[in-house]
Design goal:
The complex is a heterodimer of chains A (198) and B (467). Chain A has 198 residues and is of the alpha/beta class. Chain A is built from 8 helices and 6 strands. A 3-stranded parallel β-sheet of chain A has the order 1-2-3. Chain A has a 3-stranded antiparallel β-sheet with strand order 4-5-6, with no helix packed on it. Chain B has 15 helices and 19 strands. Chain B is globular, with a radius of gyration of 21 Å. Chain B is 32% helix and 16% strand. Chain B is α/β, with parallel strands linked by helices. Chain B has helices at residues 6-14, 39-48, 78-94, 109-116, 147-156, 181-192, 207-210, 214-222, 238-244, 253-263, 314-327, 353-363, 382-390, 393-400, 449-458, and strands spanning 15-18, 24-27, 30-33, 58-60, 97-98, 124-127, 141-144, 158-161, 165-172, 200-205, 231-234, 276-281, 288-290, 298-300, 342-345, 374-377, 403-404, 425-428, 443-446. The longest helix of chain B has 17 residues, at 78-94. Classes of the chains: A alpha/beta (198), B alpha/beta (467). Chains A and B meet through helix 4, helix 7 and helix 8 of A and helix 2, helix 3, helix 5, helix 10 and helix 11 of B. The structure holds iron/sulfur cluster. The site of iron/sulfur cluster has 13 residues of chain B, from loops. Iron/sulfur cluster (SF4) binds at residues 63-64, 108, 110, 129, 131, 347-348, 409, 412-413, 430-431 of chain B.
């Protein structure tokens, strides 16, 4: 997706945020760009015309699970629905020169890997996959291999990596620290009692 | 102790523990909840058989989906209604305070938190909404989170966070009369770009910032997310303390002196180091208007729309061409020659009493131009609406031909019935001009409340300094 500042409103438009479920957003990913006619939760997507000029509708990229993007991907609203839509569509990894912070965090909560690469590396990847190509991502080894035989290393925070590999229950893990939290809370209450209702 | 920034002070005072990778477990003092990003979080709690850690830290309000027309008629869209009903039943089930649709305290989540005194200096404040940065105006650390973190906050009262880098944006000197916090915010974004603040927490400083009211500081911190930073903050001073005194959730009489003493520490120490510094001369800031589909695509009201041909960076030029096409504009056109179809005064950026006063001053004694299809004013909360009516602002707007609505997010993101039709152009006091933000195919220009009111009465963008 060769454009910068792709925002979460573009990834999943607001009319779909009315859903109180966590799944089923894939068909509406990039909705305004992907379809020629307007849609909402009630309109079956089969009845809508695809925009032939949109990247994801291009046969060369059909069924892609890696999204190559430009700087500041995922800017705008905090809606986790954006990541749910990518994940539900089948995107497992997004590569860009930079990501918006909240979007970046949300990815890790949903098993989507955001990879930050230098602008010129991204430029080269765009060139290489222009006609559709397979990239192989090895998360444990932190490398991307390309059809031309390049091996590109990428950085990832160790804790976030472990979470992706093992799929941990964040809340369960934090609750194992309940005693520490409780002790902190008691101290905090003593120093700033007005932060707590009686 | 080495001099610390305001951000470091709040981080230190909320750090429960640090893990091996250097990620901190941060205690959360206030969690604000609205209907759009919370249903899946409550469902997660239920499925896991968990309870909220601390019920009294939470405050909930429906805002994104609520109608801004007569509330008695209910919500006609069944899906919007279901989402609000989910918030009602979830807050009831878990015992969380809700300001429901018929409560005069209902309003946009980022307006009601401060209005109630539920946002206090030195707090950590989170909400499943990116504009949570608003609350940093109080010398709080406030940031938006996704739904998984909403659930994590509910269940543990904590979040795992990496320490941010810090940036100080100093606006030196006073700004010219008529220049508002919105213009300052847009000018900063125009300077550093929408990704300029990524990875940073911004602290605003300088004379122009100190001169802002709390409403102005909230508008400024609100727009911080549009500069890519998760949080913006302003040090506590007398303006902050005066605003809080007497509000329902503010410290009691008995605790007041102790609280104020504690808050007086909430500023960056002399000599504290920031990872980045930006300095802007307040006198240079003009009334701002965005021309494109990103808040960084912004110019002063007396300027012309820029030409992509003059750009060296090809990705950037392509973005500009795309924006011009979407916006239906030609490079070189003076922005003051652009006519608008609709005007929206509202949103968590600019729907507080001071914003409405600014807009009313321009509307007074004038009429909405004939090419304007709708000019609407949507107060940020029921209490803002009440106060505006006591001051007679509603009558000024109605006499001029504006619509006077019920509080909510409204046409900021068009989740309710208020929206732009394809191709319609809007002067809006909200915060995002993304493609389709105010309705599919709609074209948004971000401006201050006075500039929006001027666009309504003249039918095109107009420099308010001449009025
Ligand atoms: S007013 Fe707009 S930006 Fe603010 S919370 Fe509502 S939808 Fe979000």
């Amino acid at each position: 997706m060769d454009r910068s500042n792709v925002d979460t409103d573009a990834i999943i438009p607001k009319q779909y945020l009315k859903s109180i479920r966590r799944s089923g957003f894939g068909p509406f990913l990039f909705d305004d760009w992907r379809y020629l006619d307007a849609g909402d939760l009630d309109t079956p997507v089969e009845s809508r015309r695809l925009n032939p000029d949109f990247e994801l509708n291009d046969a060369r990229y059909a069924g892609a699970s890696v999204l190559l993007a430009r700087k500041n991907f995922g800017c705008g609203s905090s809606r986790e629905h954006a990541v749910w839509a990518l994940e539900n569509y089948g995107i497992r990894c997004v590569m860009a020169p930079s990501f918006a912070d909240i979007f970046f965090n949300n990815c890790f909560k949903n098993g989507v890997l955001p990879i930050v690469l230098e602008e010129k590396v991204i430029d080269a990847l765009f060139e290489e996959v222009r006609d559709g190509a397979q990239l192989t991502i090895d998360l444990p080894a932190q490398t991307i291999s390309t059809p031309s035989g390049q091996n590109i290393a990428f950085d990832i925070d160790a804790g976030l990596k472990a979470r992706l590999v093992q799929g941990l229950d964040d809340i369960g893990l934090t609750l194992e620290r309940a005693d520490v939290i409780r002790a902190f809370e008691n101290k905090h209450r003593q120093s700033q009692p007005w932060l707590f209702a009686e | 102790m080495a001099p610390r920034t305001l951000y470091q002070k709040i981080w230190d005072s909320h750090l429960v523990e640090t893990d091996d990778a250097g990620t901190g477990l941060i205690y959360i003092d206030r969690h604000l909840v609205h209907e759009v990003t919370s249903p899946q979080a409550f469902e997660g709690l239920r499925l896991a058989g968990r309870q909220p850690w601390r019920v009294d830290a939470n405050l909930a309000v429906p805002d994104h989906n609520v109608p801004t027309t007569d509330r008695a008629a209910g919500i006609s869209d069944p899906i919007s209604r279901a989402q609000i009903e989910a918030l009602q039943s979830n807050t009831r089930e878990f015992g969380i305070t809700l300001f429901d649709m018929d409560d005069v305290r209902q309003g946009i989540v980022h307006v009601i938190g401060p209005e109630q005194g539920a946002t206090l200096p030195g707090m950590t404040v989170v909400c499943g909404d990116s504009h949570t940065s608003t609350h940093g105006a109080f010398g709080a650390l406030a940031f938006g989170i996704g739904t998984s973190e909403v659930e994590h906050t509910l269940a543990t009262q904590c979040l795992w966070q990496k320490p941010s880098k810090t940036m100080r944006v100093t606006v030196d000197g006073a700004v010219a009369p008529g220049i508002t916090a919105k213009d300052i915010a847009l000018a900063i974004i125009g300077r550093i770009g929408t990704a300029g603040g990524t990875g940073y927490v911004i602290e605003y400083a300088g004379e122009a910032i100190r001169n802002l009211s709390m409403e102005g500081r909230m508008s400024l911190c609100n727009m911080t997310i549009e500069a890519g930073a998760r949080a913006g903050m302003v040090a506590v001073d007398q303006t902050t303390i005066d605003y809080i005194k007497g509000r329902p959730y503010a410290p009691s009489e008995a605790q007041w002196a102790q609280a104020v003493a504690c808050w007086s520490e909430l500023h960056s120490d002399e000599g504290a180091q920031f990872d980045a510094e930006v300095v802007i001369d307040g006198a240079d800031i003009q009334p701002q208007v965005t021309w494109g589909t990103s808040p960084e695509m912004v110019i002063a009201v007396d300027q012309a729309i820029p030409d992509p041909a003059g750009q060296d960076d090809e990705v950037r030029a392509a973005g500009m061409r795309r924006a011009l096409e979407y916006m239906g504009l030609d490079a070189g056109t003076p922005i003051s020659a652009v006519n608008v179809d609709k005007v929206f005064i509202g949103s968590c950026t600019n729907s507080r009493i001071e914003d409405l006063r600014d807009a009313a001053r321009i509307a007074q004694g004038r009429k909405v131009a004939s090419n304007i299809r709708v000019a609407m004013v949507v107060p940020g909360s029921g209490l803002v609406k009440q106060q505006a009516e006591e001051e007679g602002l509603d009558q000024i707007f109605l006499d001029a031909g504006f619509e006077w609505r019920e509080p909510g997010c409204s046409m900021c993101l068009a989740m309710n019935a208020d929206r732009l039709e394809p191709g319609e152009r809007c002067a809006s006091t909200s915060n995002r001009n993304f493609e389709g933000r105010q309705g599919q195919g709609g074209r948004t220009h971000l401006v201050s409340p006075a500039m929006a009111a001027a666009a309504a009465v003249f039918g095109h963008f107009t420099d308010i300094r001449g009025l």
